[in-house]
Amino acid sequence: MSSPPPPLPTSTTATTANNNYNASCSSSSTVLSIKCFNSDCTDVKSRKGWRLRSGDFAELCDRCASAYEEGSFCEAFHSRASGWRCCESCGKRVHCGCIVSIQAFTLLDAGGIACLACARKSFVLSELQTRMPYEVDRLNTGETFSAPSLEKRKVEDFSEKFINGNLRIRLRDIVENGNAGIIGEEQSQTPSSLMEDASAQQFGISIPYKSLSESNSQIEGSVNALQPAPPPPFTKHFHGSLHNGVDSSVDGHIRNGKPRTDARGRSQLLPRYWPRFTDGELHQISGNSNSVIKPLFEKMLSASDAGRIGRLVLPKKCAEAYFPPISQPEGLPLRVQDSTGKEWIFQFRFWPNNNSRMYVLEGVTPCIQNMQLQAGDTVTFSRLEPEGKLVMGFRKATSATPSDQDNETSQIGNGVSTKGDAELDHSPWSKVDKSGYIAKEVLEGKSSIRKRKSSTLGSKSKRLRIEKEDMIELKLTWEEAQGLLRPPPDHVPSIVAIEGFEFEEYEDAPVLGKPTIFATDNVGQKVQWVQCEDCLKWRKLPANTLLPSKWACSSNTWDPERSSCSVAQELTAEQLEYLIPSCKLVVASKRSKDARKEIDRVEALEGEGLDTLANLAILGEGEAFPASSQATTKHPRHRPGCSCIVCIQPPSGKGPKHKQTCTCTVCQTVKRRFKTLMMKREKKQSEKEAETKQSEKEAVTTRKKPQEPSAEKLLDDEPSPSSNTGSESGSPNKKKTVSEGSDGDPKRMKSSTSPFKGQIDLNIQPEREDELSPGSDSGGGMMRMLQDATETYLRMQRFLSSDGDNNPSGNHMLSSGGTGEKNSVMPRCGAAAIKMLTRIILQLFP
DNA sequence: CCACAGCATGGTC
DNA sequence: CGACCATGCTGTG
């Protein structure tokens, strides 16, 4: 972040680099050539084309230049090159494989690409009003952050220099880097026409499409090389006309008595401190005055800043650049006005620190409280010109959860209400792309104040600290989202080997689908169960069906007989209980009590047999999702040589179907393990009395069925190894429910048995066996494990031999006594049970 | 004991 | 590797 953008080659003859980059375009051209840069063309060059990496422009003949400007260059010359993709929105083919068209598309967050027009359209429509100009510009400029071949930092910096609307920017890096920035051809159309050739030459990537003008942008660049302009990258003049290109309001100014001598230092402010004011914010700040707002910098409040100490740590460079110079640590009082006009006086001072200074604003607590700010929110500093009055604004952080974000309107500035905010690289949501740092600031912000002294974690941990609940929420949300991800339809994955393990790699982004439960039906066919949006009945569909996010019985073209909500569902409640993860059933039970009552006829799901078990094992274990990183990292799926239930099977979705009579390794293993378990169990049971527990369980069983899920809570501390990638399993659920109270044996809760009163704890982690079977608990714990495994076994037996008898409570001698369907976690029982069985066997026969 | 002021430390960039 | 800065620690009133 603090490192400057990697410099581009400054040579004006650097065609080599370009040729490397875009070999298909210009493999033979040289700068000395008078020929068109396009190697497929023999005409004489006459016009400028795309921006080369060197900073120069490809010089094209008239025809090629026209093609380029029309966006048809790649179509004309690269039609057989690789890298063509289709716009996710309009389907238009876009060449994503070379520098020529690099501006023509943008990578979508959810994968895929959007052509520039669609990207701009959707973006402008939805967010132009509220997003930060920088982001708009990213689209305007067609910037593609993810393009791996681009120096990301540089691109980022480029984009940061552009703003939208009537704001002005400084292309300050012209001076520093000589070649930083993005410039659009449209800029030659701007009234100010600041882009004199020299500067244009120094700026990065040209834009072959009209863009800026379409979003009503007026962009100016201050290119006064003699005045290396620091941030702010723009200044808004509310009642003035646009600048003529030289920002008279900044630089060279005497500000608070201090000549701005440190222009270079200021220009090196970290981007995160660059002010990113929206029009609304500026308007708020400016009020009705005729003042010119000069955004200075902004800072996201840290926990310390927002804490009760009342000290706001100022970025050193910002402090030195924009605040009065202080030579004494005591500093001086600083009068700051908030955007409501209220004046605050802070002590601006510093502490000596490592031969340096640490600048702080003291006494900010009242102000921060007044603004109701917390960690994660952003305070902005700007100055009213020509008064030189410091103005402090703020921007509330966006909410942490998607739902919140959907429902809430984040506050920007003082009452400037916008949605989406402009966190940019600070954006909690932009963090999503960056591997797990999801919303860390915001989440931290939610919790940091009251946690101030609570942690002795390392700094990193502290900075990434997320309050537990938030983290859970986040994780679950993420997992749920993951559960919906599927490989794109008809997409054949390529198999890549990493460290000896083969992985299926999907080039295209996953698609979102409706969560479904995968299983195998009675004829060994892979199916998936999907719940109707309306009646909440579960319907069986072919496994390879990719469903939209919303699905109802009426869409059931695969089973016309059940294409109406009035038709009963195939599954018994009991079968559902086994089939559907608890969380889903919780939801279902909440929403569909009535619907369930409507079920007057159920058909049996026959002969699932070991196949189901195996499938469930796959679902539960083999598709472990990285949210449980341990599961994934410690046991990649299908590890060669591993004999676990997962690895002895072919990869999910591959290999033969299992039938009850199947004698494959998997089935035999499962059978053997169950058999062994049952033998051991009988033996053990004859030796040890289990009456107490038995009666206890029976007692619980009696109140098995209907219970409100109100007593449930989500578990948070047990990363489940039994999750899925979503690519083959539709089950998104990792949530587990716990019925509190009724079985409050703490040992039981702690042991490997389930907190769900007898159900298998599906979160057993092989890695944690030690703690799960401590010697101190070997007696009762073992019995419980056996018992629970047995229960599971029996349940499975019932399930597997189900003949349609809709008698869920039947003779559940060993039934868990849980809360019926809502506690069911059957899809993961397979894996857990097998794992448990295996462990028990190992313990019994070391 | 608490709050505050100032310094020190260590992680991150 | 050094600068920055978030935050912990400690002394003092």
UniProtKB/TrEMBL annotation:
Superkingdom, taxonomy of origin: Eukaryota
Keyword Zinc-finger: yes
Domain CW-type: 523-573
Domain TF-B3 span(s) in chain numbering: 297-398
A GO biological-process term: regulation of DNA-templated transcription
Cell compartments where the protein resides: Nucleus
Protein name from the UniProt record: B3 DOMAIN-CONTAINING PROTEIN
Origin species: Salix koriyanagi
